[in-house]
Batch of 2 targets.
Target 1
Amino acid sequence: MELWFSERHTPHVKLSIRVDRQMFSVQSEFQRIDVFDSKEFGRFLTLDGYMMLTEKDEFIYHEMIVHVPMAVHPAAKRILVIGAGDGGVIRELTRYSSVDSIDMVEIDPLVVQVCREYLPKTACRLDDPRVNIHYEDGLRFIRSRENEYDLIIVDSTDPFGPGEGLFTREFYGNCYKSLKEDGIMVNQHESPFYDEDSQACQRAHKRIVESFPISRVYQAHIPTYPSGHWLFGFASKRYHPVHDLDAVRWDLLGLKTGYYTPRLHVGAFALPAYVEELLRDVEA
Amino acid sequence: MRGLTQNSAPIYEALERFRRMRVVPFDVPGHKRGRGNPELVKLFGEQCVGIDVNSMKPLDNLCHPISVIRDAEDLAAEAFGAAQAFLMVGGTTSSVQSMVLTVCKPGDKIILPRNVHRSVINALVLCGATPVYVNPDMDHRLGIALGMKTEQVEQVIRENPDAVAVLVNNPTYYGICSDLKKIVQLAHDHGMLALADEAHGTHFYFGEHLPVSAMSAGADMAAVSMHKSGGSLTQSSFLLTGPGVSSGYARQIINLTQTTSASYLLMGSLDIARRNLALRGREEFAKVVSMAEYARSEINKIGGYYAYSRELVNGGSIYDFDVTKLSVHTLDIGLAGIEVYDLLRDEYDIQIEFGDLGNILAYISIGDRRQDIERLVSALAEIRRRHQRDKAGLMSHEYIPPEVRVTPQQAFYAPKQAVPLNRARGRVCSEFVMCYPPGIPILAPGEVITDAILSYIAYAKEKGCSITGTEDPQVEYLNVLEEA
C-alpha cells in the first residue's frame, strides 16, 4: 500500500510525503485539521491541506521565530503570541525564566485540543502557569491593547483562510500600538521564491514598513515549506536585530538549540540579492 | 404556476436543460458561446459565456413572458407577497423609472421626499410630471436627511389633492424608515397610489424583526434592488406591483425603455437569488443582523465613532431603522466620512459603500464573513489612532430645501447656457448635481442655485467627494436656464 500526502506549492509543483497512517481528521468551525504519521518526517499537522509542522523540522521554525527576538530584547517579560495553537512557540518561550507572562491568542480551540493529544512534542508546555490562552480572533484581541507587550510573535497560517487578517496593515498597526516603546514584533513572513508567495511576502513587508520604524527580514531553511526557503519579519520600535544582538547574554542562558545560534542569527539577516531587491521594491 | 414551489428556479433550470441540449447557435450573440472571443472566455469562464444567450422558445422572452420567465416572475411575486413581479435588467433605476412612469402622466403631481435617488427625478424628466417635495427633517448631529413625518405627508396631500401618488424611500440609504403603513393609508384615503423605492430594502421581505416591507404595508408598487442585499448580479432588480395596479399596463411601460435582448445571466441570477432568499432568507438575514450589531458595538467601543441604530427611532421622521445598515458618524474624530472612506481603501484595502461629509456606510450582506468585520473595525481603530484631529472647520451636511422654479422636464429641455460656479447664484439649474454615492441630488433640474448650495458643492469638492450629474466633468460650470 502506498498512501501519500501531497501539497501543491504552485499549480505545477507539489511536495509529497509518504504517509504511514492518518491519525486524526476533523473539520472545525474554521478549517480542516489533519494529523498524519510518516516514516520520514514523523508526525505532522496540516490545516486545510497545508503543512503546518512536522516533528522532524519544526525545531527550525520555532527556534528561529523565538530566539532571534529574545536574543535582541534585553528584558522581554510580557509576551503576546498570535496563532501558535501547536504550542511550539510557547515551548521555546517558556525556556526563558525571565519571561513573566505569555498571552496566546488562537482562533481555533480545536487546533489546540488536537495538538495537545497528538503532538505532545510541541504542545508540551501549554500548561505552564505563565501561559494564558485566549480563544479569539487575533485582530480583535489586539484592538483593545495598548502599550502592553515587550514582544509580539505572529505565528500565523497563510495570508488566505483564517489567518488572512494577520497580514494586514490594520493588524500590524494594532501590534505597534500594543507594544511598549521598545517592543519587537516578529512574524512568519512567507517564502520569497515562488511568484504567488513572493507577492504575499512583499505585501506583508510593505505593510510592516509602513507601521514600524525598523523592519528587517531574516531567513531559515525549512524543508517542508514551499521552496524550503522561508522568511521571518523582525519589526521593532527601537532595537536593531543585528546591532542590538547580545550574544554573550544569550550564550550565558545555556539554552541548547538545534538550529539557532547567535552566529547564525547574524547570518540569517544576510539575504540573497533577489530577496533584498524584492523587499527594497516596496520600501520606498 | 403549474405546481411550482419556491424550491424551483425555472430560468436556472431551463438554462441547465439548454446547456445539455448542445444547440448549434445560428442566432445572436455573435460570440457563439465564447468561441468567437476567447478572451471573453478567459475572463468570465465557459460556464458563464455558455449561457449568455438570446431569447428563444425554451428560454422565454422577457418582453412578453409566457413560460419560464413567467414562472420565475410568479414565484418572485409569491416570495415577495406581491400581485405581480417583473424581472428587471436595467438596474433598480429602471424599476424606479418604470414605477413612476406607470402612475404619472405629463402634468401629474407626485408627492415625494426631496432626498430621493436621482432615478426618481430622472423619471420626472422623462414623463413631465411635477414633483411636490416633502422636506425631510434633518438629524443635525449626524448630518443626514431623515424620513417623512406622517403629519408632513398629510399636509402636503391636503394641499395637493390632485396629486396621483406618494413615493416613499423604504429605507433611505442610511437605513431610516418612515411610517410606511400610515403613509400608504393616507395616500389611499385620498385616492392616490403609494410607491416605495426599496433599493435598500430587499431584505425586509425575508428577515425577521426588520422594518415593514412595501408590499406588506399595502403599497401599490415597489422597486426592489435584488442585487444589493438580495445577492443577485449587479444591474438585476425587481419591480413589484400590488392588486391596485394593472400589470399589463406596467409591462407596456417597462417595454418602452427595456432592452429586447435581456441578459440571461442577470435573469438567471434573479431566479437563483429569489430561491435562496425564499428558502434561507430568514437565517441568512439573522446572520447579517448579528454581524452588523457586532460591528456596531465594536466600533462604538473604539471611541470617537458613532455607529447608530434603533436608538434614533423617534416615532416620526425616524419611524424605524434598518439594523443591517452599518452607518458610522465620523466627525468626532475630526475626519469627514469621505476622508475615512478614502483612507480605508487607499491604506487598508477595504472598500466601503460610501462616505459623505459626516458619515460612512459599510454594506453588510449575506456574503460577509466575521473575519472581514474584524478587519473593518480594526482599520477604523487604526485610522482613529493615526489620523484623529480636531474637528474644528468640519462641516456637517445640512439639508437645503430646494426652491423649485420649473418642472424637471421643462428645465431639462429649456434653452440653457453654461456659467461658472461663481456666477451661478440665483440662476435656475437645468441639470443634476450630486455626490455619488449616495446619488441624492444637491440640485435637480428646475431648482434655484443658492449660496448655501454653492458652498456645499465647494466643500464637497475640497473633501474629495465624487461629484456627478453635470455636463461639465470638472463641475466648474453649471448649466442654467437662459434668462428671459
Target 2
Amino acid sequence: MRLRLVPYFIRQAFQNVRENRLVHIVGISTMVISLLIFGTFLLLFYNLDTWIHGWGNTLSMSIYLEEGIDSGTEKKLVQLIRDLPGAKIDEMVSKKQAYNNLLRALGKDSVVLQGLPRNPLPASIEVVFKPLNGERPDPGPIKEKLEKLRGVEEVQYSEEWLNRFEGLMKVVRLAGFIIGGLLSLGVLFIVTNTIKLTIYSRQEEIEIMKLVGATDWFVKIPFLIEGSFQGVLSGLVSLLALYSGYAFLAAKKADILGLAILDFVFVPLPYVLTIFLVSAGLGLVGSFIALGRFFNL
Amino acid sequence: MIQLFHMFKNFGPNVALQDISLRVRKGDFVFVTGPSGAGKTTLLRLVFGAEKPTSGNILINGINLNRIRRQQLDLLRRKVGFVFQDFKLLTGRTIFENVALALEVAGERPSYIRKKTHLALRSVGLAKKELSYPLQLSGGEQQRVAIARAIVNDPLVLLADEPTGNLDPALTKDIMLLFRTIHMKGTTVLVATHSRELLEETAQKQIILNHGRLVGEK
C-alpha cells in the first residue's frame, strides 16, 4: 500500500462516519452500554477478588480457654501467643463478654439463654496472624501447637468460610467469562451491522470504484478504519463513563453492598488496556465480517 | 488488442452469446450493433471483465481474462475505460471529483490527479463546470463527464455502451465527435449502439449481432 493513500483512506472513513452519523451514534451508544456492563462487572469482580485475597492472606484464630483458667496461666499463654511469628492479639473476650455478645446477637431470641443454669461460653483470645513474606501462614501447625498449650480448650480459624468465598469467586469468574463472551458477540454483531449499513449506503460508489479499477483493499480499508474508529471511540467513552461512575461511588464512600469500610479501587491499567484493545479489535473484526460478502463485482 | 475465441455466455437457461470469435486491432474504431437483446451489452461487459464467459477465451492486449487473478483484473480495468448508458456518476460528488476518482483508485499523486482531471474535463469541454454536481448538468454534459472519467488515465481501450441512447441528435453528434477525437489519439474504441442513424453516417467497422450470434461484419 502506498503511504500517500493513508490520508485518503482516513478522509474517506470519516466521510463515511459523517454521512451515516445517526447509524454510528446508535451503534457506538449500544457498544458503550455493552462495554460498560462488562466494565462494571470487571470492576466489582476485581475489588471483590482483592478484598478476598486480602482477607485470605490474613489468618484469624479464636483460641478458646479452659474453664477456670488461673490468671498466671492466662498471662503465660498470652505471652506465648505474642511470641508466635506474625501474631497480634486482636481482642481478649471474657466469659461475660462472650455471653453479652451472644445476647446481643440473638436479640429477641435471647430468652433461650435465660433458662441456662450458668454461662456455658468459654473466654477466648482473638488472634490475627499477618502474612509472612506475602503469604498466609499455614494454620494447621499453628492450631496444633496452640492446642497443646496449657489452658487452651480449642482453636478455630477462618478456613472454612474462606474456602466458600474462593468457591464463590470461581463461580463469579466463570460468570464473568460467560457475560464477557456474550457481550463481545453482541458488540461484534452491532459493529458488523453498522458497517453493513454504511456499505449499503455507499454501494453505488463501491460499484463505480470497482468499475474504474479500484482493488478490493482500496475499497475495504476506509470501512476497516471506520469499524476500528467505532471500536476505539466506544472503548474510550465506556472507560471514561466507568471511571466517572467509580469516582462518584468512591467519593460517596461506596456504600453499595455495605462495603464502605473497604478500599474501593479502579481496575488496574492492564484491565483498562484490555477493555480498550478488545473494543478496538471487535470494531476491526466486525467490519471485516461485514465486508466479506460485498466484493463480487 | 481484443480477441474473442469461440465465446459462449449463458445466464441460466438463457443464451446471451454463442460462439463469438472476433478480433479488434489496436487503434481500431468499431461499432457493435444489432437490435435490443442481441447481446451487445453482454459482449462489452465480457471484454471489460465484468462477466465471465461460460466457455471460450477473451484476450485483451495478450492477457487472457479467464486466467488472470482478481487483483490483476482491477489493474487491467485501469487500462480499459467504460462509458455507461446511464453514466454511473456519483451525484454527491462534483464532476471534478467524479473524474478524479479513476486516478485516485490508481493511487496517483494529488498534483498529478489535479492536472490530469483538469485536462480530461477540458478535452470534453467542461473545464468551466468542474465544481458543478452531476444533477446540475444536462444529459449530454453528464455523458461527457462519464467520457472524461473513462479517458482520464489514458486507457488502451475505450468501451461505450449505448453512449448516445439518452441523447438528442445534436448531442449525439457532439459525443460521437468526441469519440473520434479520442480514437485519433490512438485509443481503441468499441461502441455498442442500435441507432441506425448513427451507423448510416459512419464509415467505421461494424460487428453485427443478432440473438447472441455474430451475423456479420462491415
